[in-house]
Amino acid sequence: MNKFLKAGVLLIILAIPVFVFLFLKSFGVNHYQVPLYYTADTTVSFPDCPDLNLPHQVKFQENSDHSFIIRDNYLVFAMVDAIQPGQESSEKVGQLARLTNAVPDDSYQVITFTNIDPDKFKSTFEGIYHSTDQWHLKNVNENVLQNFSRCGLLLPKEQTNFSNNLFVLVDPDGMIRGYYQGTSREEIDRLVLELKILIREREID
């Protein structure tokens, strides 16, 4: 009788982890929450951006004949120096190419600010850049870029030029959802993941 009792207790002990696993698999929900930056309850100060209000929504307008309006899309902003294109510029363009290949979806756009004409950009990065409906090249002057990077994308002052390595993800409401190192494969993998999650969540809603 004692042997049967011990066997029964042992069976129960061994069965508990199985039941826990089956319960979590059936009823557990695993949510990956993509961050939401600069909401109304954020404590942040940008004294060089006097018109900044919280929650912060990204807007961009260069001038009357060349404007970009946030449309009903997710946006990935990047800056690439094409006048003095070093290894980092090529790496950033290569990672943007990876992104557009990994997420072939019309729910987002990649906006690349550069300091040369788009046709020259394409020839400079021939073999790395590829044309796609999601990828847009914008030739802007450095003053416009600095103002937009600082007070639009809220980048640090030292990252408001064409050689900065940060990519910024913005949702259709103009809210910033992520910052990513543009020369890091792991960071772009994270961007791909978070962009896919946001697109999927929007489809479900």
Give a description of the structure.
By secondary structure, the protein is an alpha/beta fold. It is built from five helices and seven strands, in the order H-E-E-E-H-E-H-E-H-E-E-H. The chain has helices at residues 2-27, 87-102, 118-124, 142-151, 185-204; strands spanning 60-63, 66-68, 74-80, 108-114, 135-139, 166-170, 176-181. The strands form two sheets. It has a five-stranded mixed sheet with strand order 5-4-3-6-7, with helices on one face. The chain has a two-stranded antiparallel sheet with strand order 1-2. Helix 2 (87-102) links the parallel strand 3 (74-80) and strand 4 (108-114). Helix 2 (87-102) runs parallel beside helix 5. The radius of gyration is 23 Å and the shape is globular. The mean pLDDT is 84.
Task: Give me a quick take on this structure.
The chain is of the alpha/beta class and 205 residues long. It has helices at 2-27, 87-102, 118-124, 142-151, 185-204, and strands spanning 60-63, 66-68, 74-80, 108-114, 135-139, 166-170, 176-181.
Properties at a glance:
205 residues, alpha/beta, five-stranded mixed sheet, two-stranded antiparallel ribbon, 5 helices, 7 strands, globular
